[in-house]
Amino acid sequence: ARREGFSSIPNVKWEDVGGLDLLRHEFDRYIVKRIKYPELYEGIGMNLESGFLLYGPPGCGKTLIAKAVANEAGANFIHIKGPELLNKYVGESELAVRTLFSRARTCAPCVLFFDEVDALTTERGKEGGWVIERLLNQLLIELDGAENRRGVFVIGATNRPEVMDRALLRPGRFGKLLYVPLPSPDDRVLILKALVRNKHIDSSVDLSAIGRMESCENLSGADLAELMNEAVMAALDEKLSSTETTSLIIKTSHFELALSKASPSVS
Ligand code: ATP
Questions:
Q1: 65 alpha carbon to ligand 1 midpoint, in Å?
Q2: What mean pLDDT, rounded, does the chain reach?
Q3: C-alpha–C-alpha distance, residues 252 and 244, integer Å
């Protein structure tokens, strides 16, 4: 459902996310339940964090889980890319940040997702660094406006946590750090199962075995999504070259073909 033209509730469900149970649990108590049952959280006598940083290798579900959190909470989702925020508004970046947060407040409850958030911090001190410096300062002001931020949850994502400006990681800002790892063999099975949710898979296909195969070693979630696409394409090729008019069903042979092409994108 689109709302107000700039934010919407994402259509990613928990079932679309494979693995990452620990993160799910954390987000459940810090965001989802807090939005759903505010009365439960009133008067617990402590400041609960509402800023998070997801870090880890690319393609392992940072964006996906952030969207699922918003969906589960029935909250709006605003997706902003660090580099975009910088480039689009050179010269008026502070205004851009202010506008962003004011939008977020207007459509609260809301998850404000900062992808590649490290872009906002790496070049400080370098030439052109003042643009980032000012943007960053404005960002800190907005993040610290706790009173104003009720119902606005901030999630940042980065592949390079080590270059993040320390100031951004303090409590109340992107205060809670959550690692999103490359999937384990068992996680890969869960991811494959999530990825086939809306597809026709032959009943003889053994996803538990496929996910644990050596040729799947070090594949990220995004690599597994690519593997799935390849399997679908293999099934399609076969169908196009046959005269049968059966529906598209993905078989083990299609996965085998896809597996022969798979390679990890993260070293
Ligand atoms: P980046 O750092 O490159 O932004 P990311 O960690 O945000 O990566 P996503 O954009 O969430 O990665 O993942 C890319 C795609 O890979 C997803 O749209 C999904 O198809 C697949 N994918 C990744 N992780 C998972 C997962 N845990 N479960 C199911 N699918 C996944």
A1: 8
A2: 89
A3: 19
Closest residue by Cα to residue 195 from 19, 1, 5, 6 = 19
Residues in the chain: 267
**pLDDT for the residue 5:** 38
pLDDT one-digit tens code per residue, 90-143: 567 788 888 899 999 999 999 999 999 998 875 555 556 677 788 888 899 999
Segment holding 178, helix H or strand E: strand 176-179
157 ligand 1 Cβ < 6 A: yes
Residues 11 and 1 sit within 8 Å (Cβ to Cβ): no
Pocket test for ligand 1, best of 11, 12, 63 (most atoms within 8 A of CB): 63
- Enter the ipTM: 0.97
Cβ of 17 below 6 Å from ligand 1: yes
Q: Quick check: CB of 20 below 6 Å from ligand 1?
A: yes
Contact at 8 Å (CB) between 27 and 233? Answer: no
Q: Which protein residue has the closest C-alpha to ligand 1 atom 12?
A: 59
**Residues 76/109, Cβ–Cβ less than 8 Å:** yes
Window from 22-26, 44-48, 181-185 with minimum mean pLDDT: 44-48
